[in-house]
């Protein structure tokens, strides 16, 4: 106690919070919470209890996350499939019991749970959208209201999606892109544009935060014969930084539900803007989404070549030189390996003076996945692009020494097989070289 008082005198504002937190925990430990007040998912007191078709009651937030973000539409307790996962019936009786219990135990530090707002309905959303066409001010008010509604619950988001909000928001983005592009005086000094006083930016933000279902993403994919995808490209090209991030995050989600034929016919400009977003590093989240999008898009049609022509290879090499985090490094090596499956990609890689050394450096330093992809890159180079100069460069840069080291350490049989294959491909050029460390000769195949 004396120690606490001493620390309280030194930092009163911090320790008051800590003491209050401890007291609250002590009080809660003394209270016997009725088990049927607890949500089966979160095991916390339910703030907004709802009953699903199986008769089990959950807290709305918990069951919404389970149903809307899970892969299966089943009851968490009974495991029974749900015919109508959107049918969440408010359990008003249980909510009133919880509120009454909170009131009774207020002296123990338990706060009364407020009565939750009723979920929005389709007619309200549709009226908002109709009213938005009356004037620019009405559109701004509508966007603000939609943003507020979406933030309240997952149920509201699904209701908005089912009420035509996706189409409305996509139209706002498209129309404001056109308007901003035709009005040069809206351009900022750095060439960026604000989507017509922020209306397009706001619509793009709402679309992303709706966390659209597969059906909603497919609406965006085919909206007005691909105009929305073209608009995302323009936003990535000249939009403000937040909007560029939202655009690439949406594009990543859309690419996950697009069919192969559509993906194979994407425009070169889209890849150019994705690579530029990756180069600009506007945020870690946007960079991760860009890598994921490029990984999803690259296998189809001529997309590998489009990404290479957009300058993806040197950008990836430069980013890998400074990358220290495991996941981004893995993703960059995965994408680089995919691009090296075409001759253009290998040529771009070899044209960068640091590429072979960088790829070799990542082996045994990041993860098993990174080992595999880096060795695949080197194997592809060794098989298809190994000119005499390249072979000597691999020796001088320590690539051969690293491959010999892979054979000595415990890094998995698959990695050893790839390293051995690379070494065998050019054994005649590397076997007697003085550049190869003598301690690694025993591992040379």
Protein described:
By secondary structure, the protein is mainly alpha-helical. It contains 25 helices and three strands. Among the domains are: 1-108, Herpes Virus-1; 311-444, Alpha Horseshoe (Leucine-rich Repeat Variant). Strands 2-1-3 form a three-stranded antiparallel sheet. The termini are far apart. It is an enzyme of class 2 (transferase). Pfam families: ARM_PUB (PF25598), U-box (PF04564).
Q: Spell the H/E element sequence.
A: HHEEHEHHHHHHHHHHHHHHHHHHHHHH
Q: What gyration radius follows from the Cα positions, in whole Å?
A: 29 Å
Q: Tell me the CATH superfamily of the domain at 311-444.
A: Leucine-rich Repeat Variant
Identify the strand order in the major beta sheet. 2-1-3
pLDDT < 50 runs, ≥5 residues: 1-29, 184-189
Estimate the strand proportion. Answer: under 5%
- The number of E-state strands comes to 3
The CATH first-level class of the domain at 311-444 comes to: Mainly Alpha
Catalytic activity: S-ubiquitinyl-[E2 ubiquitin-conjugating enzyme]-L-cysteine + [acceptor protein]-L-lysine = [E2 ubiquitin-conjugating enzyme]-L-cysteine + N(6)-ubiquitinyl-[acceptor protein]-L-lysine
EC number: 2.3.2.27
Pfam family, one: ARM_PUB
Domain U-box: 32-108
């Amino acid at each position: 106690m004396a120690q606490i008082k001493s620390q309280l005198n030194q930092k009163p504002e911090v320790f008051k919070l800590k003491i209050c937190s401890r007291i609250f925990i002590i009080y809660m430990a003394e209270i016997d919470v009725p088990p049927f007040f607890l949500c089966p998912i979160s095991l916390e007191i339910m703030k907004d209890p709802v009953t699903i078709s199986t008769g089990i009651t959950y807290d709305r937030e918990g069951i919404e996350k389970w149903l809307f973000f899970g892969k299966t539409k089943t009851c968490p307790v009974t495991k029974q499939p749900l015919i109508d996962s959107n049918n969440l019936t408010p359990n008003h009786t249980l909510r009133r019991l919880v509120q009454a219990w909170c009131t009774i135990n207020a002296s123990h530090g338990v706060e009364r749970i407020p009565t939750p707002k009723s979920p929005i309905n389709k007619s309200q959303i549709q009226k908002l959208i109709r009213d938005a066409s009356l004037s620019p001010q009405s559109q701004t008010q509508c966007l603000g209201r939609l943003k507020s509604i979406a933030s309240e619950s997952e149920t509201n988001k699904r209701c908005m999606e089912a009420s035509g909000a996706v189409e409305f928001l996509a139209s706002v983005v498209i129309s404001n892109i056109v308007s901003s592009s035709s009005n040069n005086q809206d351009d900022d000094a750095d060439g960026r544009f604000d989507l017509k006083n922020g209306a397009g930016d706001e619509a793009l933000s709402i679309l992303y935060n709706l966390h659209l279902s597969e059906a909603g993403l497919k609406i965006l994919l085919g909206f007005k014969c691909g105009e929305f995808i073209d608009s995302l490209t323009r936003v990535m090209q000249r939009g403000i930084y937040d909007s560029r991030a939202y655009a690439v995050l949406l594009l990543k989600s859309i690419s996950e539900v697009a069919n192969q034929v559509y993906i194979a016919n994407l425009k070169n400009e889209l890849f150019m803007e994705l690579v530029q977003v990756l180069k600009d590093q506007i945020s870690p989240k946007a960079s991760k989404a860009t890598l994921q999008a490029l990984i999803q898009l690259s296998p189809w049609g001529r997309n590998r070549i489009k990404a290479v022509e957009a300058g993806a290879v040197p950008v990836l090499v430069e980013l890998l030189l400074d990358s220290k985090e495991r996941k981004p490094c893995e993703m960059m090596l995965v994408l680089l390996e995919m691009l090296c499956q075409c001759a253009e990609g290998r040529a771009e890689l070899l044209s960068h003076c640091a590429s072979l050394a960088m790829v070799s450096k990542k082996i045994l330093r990041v993860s098993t996945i990174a080992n595999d992809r880096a060795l695949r890159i080197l194997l592809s180079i060794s098989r298809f692009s190994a000119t005499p100069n390249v072979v000597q460069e691999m020796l001088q840069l320590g690539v051969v020494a690293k491959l010999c080291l892979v054979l000595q350490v415990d890094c998995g049989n698959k990695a050893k097989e790839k390293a051995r294959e690379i070494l065998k491909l050019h054994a005649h050029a590397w076997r007697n070289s003085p550049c190869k460390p003598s301690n690694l000769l025993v591992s040379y195949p």
